[in-house]
Amino acid sequence: MTKEELDKIMQIKGNVRGAIFQTHAVYIRLKKGDEGVKMVEEKLKELGHPLKFEEVKPLDWYPEAISILIMVVIKEIFNWTDKDIFEMGNMAPKSSFIVRLVIKHFLTPQKCFERGNDHWKKNTDWGEMEAYEFNEKEKYAILRMHGCKSHPVVCFYHGGYFLRIAQFVLRSEKVTVEETKCTHRGDPYDEYIIRWE
Amino acid sequence: MEDDKFKIAKEDLEDLEIYIKEFSDFLPLAVCSVNPVGVIINVNKAAEDLTKYASLELVGEPMSALFSDKNKVEEIEKEIANKGSVHGRELILVAKDKKEIPMSVSASMRKDTEGNYIGYFIGLTNITELKKFQEGLEVKVKERTKELEDSKKSLIKTLDDVKEARENAEEEKNKTLSIITNFTDGLLVFDKGGKLSLINPQAETFLQVKSKDVIEKSILDLKTIPVFGSIVKIFNEKAKRAAKQELSFGTSLILEGSAVPIVRREKKIGTLIILHNITREKSIERMKSDFVSLTAHQLRTPLSGIKWALKLLLKGDFGETTKEQKKFAEEMSRSTEKMISLIGNLLDITKIEEGRYIFEKVSSDMEKVILSAVSLYKKEIENKKFKFKFKKPKNGARVKMDAEKIKLAVDNLLDNAIKYTKPGGRLELELSCGIKEVEFKIKDSGMGIPKNQQERVFNKFFRGDNIMKIQTEGTGLGLFITKNIIEAHGGKIWFKSEEGRGTTFYFTLPI
């Protein structure tokens, strides 16, 4: 990673809950063990942004830039692909303290969809989630993320994350997510279509 | 100020999260939190240990995916949503290692502050040990049930066998009763206490009594009924062993009564009296005796005439006879003597059988009686050059007897010994006197009696096979008469014999 790249990441605005950092650590530990977690911590320290995952508090706010840096570092250290980051995002709600707190709002798929932005606000202090369309008959829903242009890796993470939330409430083995619009490709917002059978 | 409060609340919440995590990890009960659509949202450590799945593997999966019967899980979920909770439902959990674990499942509904159903907590208890115990118990119950069923079958079989045995016994009893009822002999059964327990119709007819009048009566009571007198006598005297006795009921009915002890397992349990009607046999026997007696008497008179006529002829009273005529006359005289002797024997037998062989017992000298008999054979003993001995007691032997009959008995024995012993043989007589009886012994070195015929020696008309070949003469009545004479005196007669080496006859007479 070049200094320019690091600087560019660290210029990204906004904060996220420590719970997100904790889910990162859980996934790294799952795939690479404690040694993997240690390697990431050392890399962050090396880059001048030290972080001890164990010391992270789930409800505290931390820079979104660090969360993105962790994902970029992971890709670099473990030679992971965007698909791995998608998987990491997909696993995150499973161990998220925040998700456990707000799960009571996921009464039905539609309610969950409609109250998506509330959930978003519990995790981040930037961007807006728009529940654009929920079509139970056709079995799809469209989410639009406004003001979320940060780093391309985040698009994969969000894709996996949204898919898991949908999997939680749809109870369907065949649920898919597709990013149909992306700010990094010049679109005015990020758009995700979730489909199920 | 508001920031401080918010900070404190946040810290409390974080402490609470840690507390809940620690508490949930400490819980030995496997607990899952499930959302309203049945997807696992959270699990504790015990659930991970139980299922062998990591938390991340379980969360996000349908609860039903953990169990073999998914439909049953869905039914339980519906019940939770409707009733609020379920308790102690049994399900089979399929762990990550595919092991099937029996579970007792209890669940409780979760609601938000507005009362909306937001899922449920479910607790899983491993009941493998309980199941094993139950199965063991079931096996034991099955085994015990089987044992009981087997016992029942055995019992039923035994009862069937008993029933069959009883029916067989009943049938046998009926058969026996039928035989007893239709038996031509009269039967009376007394129990071991001497009570009459059975009398068959034939016995009723013989004794002219009715069963109802005599049954269950003791032998002492029956003694008072005249017709039972002879029965009681048999019962008392002969009940200990099988015996026969002739019973006369007037002239028209003669019965042969036998008393037979009824023995079971070597123990006498009663007495059976059998009454066999011998009236007809006795009648035939009497007619036969009458015929023989009449015939013998009728023959003896002309034979006596012939005997005297021949005697006179031989004496020359009818004039001189030629040598050849004399020879024929002598032969005729001997034949006549034999015929007279045979007729005498037949008459004696008739008398014996009719009980008319009357003895006139007077004290007599036994030695004299013997010598008197021997004198008749003196010439023959000399002719045949027998080595003759007669050993007698010094002080003589007096016996109360019918001397004529005893002489006849000695005569018969002496006649046989001389007749069946070759010339030059030995003939030894011995008379000995004891305190209570005298014993006479006559020993020869004659032909002896074949062993297989010795049992029949005292039978009427018995003649040994070996003597029949060389001696055609002889009636076979002598020993029969002799035995009857000795026994009529209260004595005993027996013999020892070996074919080809001789015979010794013995008899005793009470003094």
From TrEMBL, chain A:
InterPro entries according to UniProt: NO_sig/Golgi_transp_ligand-bd, V4R
The protein's name in its UniProt record: 4-vinyl reductase 4VR domain-containing protein
Superkingdom of source: Bacteria
Gene3D superfamilies named in the record: Trafficking protein particle complex subunit 3 (3.30.1380.20)
Domain called 4-vinyl reductase 4VR: residue spans: 140-196
TrEMBL record, chain B:
Coiled coil: 145-179
Membrane-spanning ranges: none
Record flagged with keyword Membrane: yes
Gene Ontology CC: one annotated term: plasma membrane
InterPro entries the UniProt entry points to: BphY/WalK/GraS-like, HATPase_C_sf, HATPase_dom, His_kinase_dom, HisK_dim/P_dom, HisK_dim/P_sf, PAS, PAS-assoc_C
Gene Ontology biological process terms from the UniProt entry: cellular response to phosphate starvation
Domain PAC: 87-139
Protein name: histidine kinase
Organism, as annotated: Candidatus Staskawiczbacteria bacterium RIFCSPHIGHO2_01_FULL_36_16
